């Protein structure tokens, strides 16, 4: 008879290492009451993080300094302050290339200042995680919630996940490392929440105990060797192909970009498992009136579904948890039977509406309406969504407001 | 009037502790067994500039976020919100729902006849409550104004009791210090600080409690019914 002994492993902080499935799905959870920024801290605390870099730009959240507290307490291996947001995003890349599990966070103008780094992260195939608390992009100056910057990030080659609330964010940060570090994926993940609406909001959240954590990152499982100036990714930085003007260098560059996108595609089964699906539905499954939304827009749509119910109108919400990869098949299936598809958004350009139109083209007869849309810090009350819906679908307003 | 949700808007001035108040209100309601969410809203605000925070309490999960545009309750933390228009919305009661409640920290009546007429049409009750005066008398500091406002809120709308308020205040000021990844012990300096903190909490609690009792009496006189049904029994996960 063979006796199986399970070896108990502890991480740097003395936490017991458990499987991602156990941490995310099986470990007993208790209720806590906290802000979205504090939820980031709680996730990082259980993620065996090796390195984090921060820069105190405005706007920001408390998340970066809370990660600093974790470093003081011994949960994070290395923590330091960059000289600017550009510096931060470069330095986290350095940490990740050296084989460290790395996380940082930024917002709005900070994202734009650091922007050159995001495609670089993807191209060097580092599984770094950025918690993006979306805030307004200048100009005019705004530090309020607005997710225009997410539209800019869509094609950087990073995975983009979108959390609705503190609970989503906590679970997504943990799942983010697990999926991003899969050898067949190995690209950065940007976990997005709406600034203020999630980062500064205090709500109930269920947390597993804090004496268990994710298995540490194993850089030797990476599809590319850790930093080395002679082979990719180090070689790319030292001696980029395109410095040699010839066809093969252009082709290499192009094919590498395809490969980064293919890696995002390969993340689907892992994301599906660890996020329990790339989409989530709320409301009457038979309803012809459908909201497709992510983040706070999904939260507000859920409230609108309740108000519409009071008006005697059936509606439902399809919440998108991932934007890259885009849940193409899930969305096409979910909108079957839809007559009206509303895409409410917290930005002026309607980047999600574009995405929805692109992937539903030829797959749905529903009318797609990019409305309501607010920006620059505006709130989207459920009452306003309902009013808009009733107006555009020609229905009689009974008792909204 | 049965509600599923009470949305509270708190126009205040920077430094008055309205953000803290919203957090304590939501924590207390959560402890009582309601669903609750709180959030602040501010820009690059400073002392005496308008600042606002919000709390939502309900008997079903709350998804709603951001500014409370259509409040059931408005808590005016400072007379200047009304007299100097230091408010995100004009008039300060814009969007208030029928049969709502307004609590104003004031020693005198600040509303115009037009305001009163509009609010009467909406059957909104106004509670003029000198919270700052109250805080100075009981806690010996105007810094406890927010505690008086919290007490007044729950005294008036019911549903959340003193024990839950106490829990909300304690969880805000006695944040657990997690010693891990090494050793951490409270040295004597920390202990002294701790003692000071306990005194502060005691004073805050007394202020909230006195305000609660006063508002409860006022609500009874006005014939105000509890704003929410009793808290749902939350399933322990």
Descriptive account of the structure:
- The complex is a heterodimer of chains A (401) and B (237).
- With 401 residues, chain A is α/β, with parallel strands linked by helices.
- Chain A has 2 domains: 16-220, 3-Layer(aba) Sandwich (Rossmann fold), CATH 3.40.50.970; 282-392, Rossmann fold.
- Chain A has helices at residues 20-26, 36-45, 63-72, 85-97, 108-113, 117-123, 148-153, 166-180, 234-238, 247-266, 268-274, 296-310, 328-334, 351-360, 382-392, and strands spanning 16-17, 30-35, 51-54, 78-81, 102-106, 129-134, 159-162, 189-194, 202-207, 212-213, 279-283, 289-293, 315-320, 322-324, 340-342, 367-369.
- In chain A, helix 2 packs parallel to helix 3.
- The model of chain A has no long low-confidence stretch (mean pLDDT 92).
- Chain B is an alpha/beta fold.
- Chain B has a single domain (5-222), classed as Pyruvate-ferredoxin oxidoreductase, PFOR, domain III (Pyruvate-ferredoxin Oxidoreductase, domain 3), CATH 3.40.920.10.
- Chain B is 41% helix and 16% strand.
- Chain B has helices at residues 18-32, 80-83, 113-121, 131-139, 145-157, 162-173, 188-222; strands at residues 5-13, 35-41, 50-58, 73-76, 101-105, 125-129.
- Chain B has a 6-stranded mixed β-sheet with strand order 2-3-1-4-5-6.
- Chain B is globular and about 55 Å long.
- The two termini of chain B are 32 Å apart.
- Chain A binds chain B through residues 13-14, 29, 31, 33, 58, 73-75, 143-145, 164-165, 194, 196-198, 200-204, 206, 210, 296, 298-300, 302-303, 379-384, 401, and chain B through 22-23, 26-27, 30, 35-41, 43-44, 62-67, 69-70, 171, 178, 180-182, 236-237.
């Amino acid at each position: 008879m063979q006796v199986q002994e399970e070896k108990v492993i502890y991480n740097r902080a003395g936490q017991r290492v458990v499987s991602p499935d156990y941490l995310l799905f099986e470990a007993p959870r208790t209720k806590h009451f906290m802000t979205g920024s504090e939820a980031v801290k709680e996730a990082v605390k259980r993620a065996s993080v090796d390195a984090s870099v921060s820069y105190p730009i405005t706007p920001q959240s408390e998340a970066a300094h809370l990660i600093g507290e974790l470093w003081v307490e011994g949960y994070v291996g290395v923590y330091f302050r960059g000289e600017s947001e550009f510096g931060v995003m470069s330095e986290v890349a350095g940490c990740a290339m050296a084989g460290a599990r790395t996380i940082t966070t930024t917002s709005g103008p900070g994202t734009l200042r650091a922007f050159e780094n995001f495609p670089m992260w993807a191209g060097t195939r580092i599984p770094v995680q950025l918690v993006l608390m979306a805030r307004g992009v200048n100009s005019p100056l705004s530090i309020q919630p607005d997710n225009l910057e997410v539209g800019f990030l869509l094609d950087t080659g990073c995975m983009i996940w979108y959390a609705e609330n503190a609970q989503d964010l906590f679970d997504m940060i943990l799942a983010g490392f697990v999926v991003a570090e899969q050898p067949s994926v190995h690209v950065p993940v940007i976990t997005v929440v709406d600034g203020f609406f999630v980062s500064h909001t205090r709500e109930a959240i269920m947390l597993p105990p804090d004496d268990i954590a994710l298995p540490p990152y194993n850089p030797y499982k990476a599809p590319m060797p850790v930093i080395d100036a002679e082979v990719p990714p180090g070689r790319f930085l030292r001696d980029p192909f395109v410095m040699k003007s010839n066809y093969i260098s252009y082709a290499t560059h192009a094919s590498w970009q395809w490969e980064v996108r293919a890696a995002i595609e390969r993340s689907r089964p892992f994301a599906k498992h660890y996020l329990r699906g790339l989409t989530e539905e709320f409301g009457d499954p038979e309803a012809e009136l459908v909201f497709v939304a992510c983040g706070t827009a999904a939260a507000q749509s859920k409230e609108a579904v309740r108000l519409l119910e009071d008006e005697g109108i059936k509606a439902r919400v399809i919440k998108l948890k991932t934007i890259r990869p885009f849940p193409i098949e899930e969305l096409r299936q979910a909108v079957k039977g839809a007559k009206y598809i509303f895409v409410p958004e917290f930005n002026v350009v309607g980047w999600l509406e574009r995405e929805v139109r692109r992937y539903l083209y030829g797959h749905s007869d529903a009318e797609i309406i990019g409305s309501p849309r607010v920006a620059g810090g505006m709130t989207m009350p459920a009452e306003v969504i309902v009013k808009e819906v009733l107006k555009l679908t020609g229905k009689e307003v009974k008792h909204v407001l | 009037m049965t509600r599923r949700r009470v949305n509270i808007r708190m126009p205040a001035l920077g430094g008055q502790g309205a953000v803290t108040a919203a957090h304590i209100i939501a924590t207390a309601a959560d402890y009582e067994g309601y669903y609750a969410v709180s959030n602040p809203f501010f820009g690059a605000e400073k002392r005496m500039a308008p600042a606002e925070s919000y709390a939502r309490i309900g008997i079903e999960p709350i998804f709603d976020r951001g500014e409370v545009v259509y409040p059931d309750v408005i808590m005016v933390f400072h007379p200047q919100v009304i007299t100097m228009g230091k408010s995100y919305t004009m008039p300060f009661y814009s969007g208030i729902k029928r049969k709502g409640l307004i609590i104003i920290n004031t020693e005198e009546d600040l509303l115009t006849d037009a305001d009163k007429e509009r609010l009467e049409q909406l059957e909104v009750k106004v509670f003029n409550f000198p919270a700052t005066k109250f805080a100075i008398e009981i806690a010996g500091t105007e810094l406890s104004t927010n505690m008086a406002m919290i007490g007044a809120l729950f005294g008036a709308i019911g549903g959340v009791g003193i024990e839950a308020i106490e829990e909300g205040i304690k969880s805000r000021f006695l944040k657990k210090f997690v010693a891990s990844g090494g050793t951490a012990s409270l040295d004597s300096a920390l202990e002294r600080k701790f003692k000071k903190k306990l005194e502060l909490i005691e004073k805050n609690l007394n202020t909230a409690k006195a305000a609660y009792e006063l508002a409860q009496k006022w609500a009874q006189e006005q014939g105000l019914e509890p704003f929410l049904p009793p808290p749902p029994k939350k399933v322990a996960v």
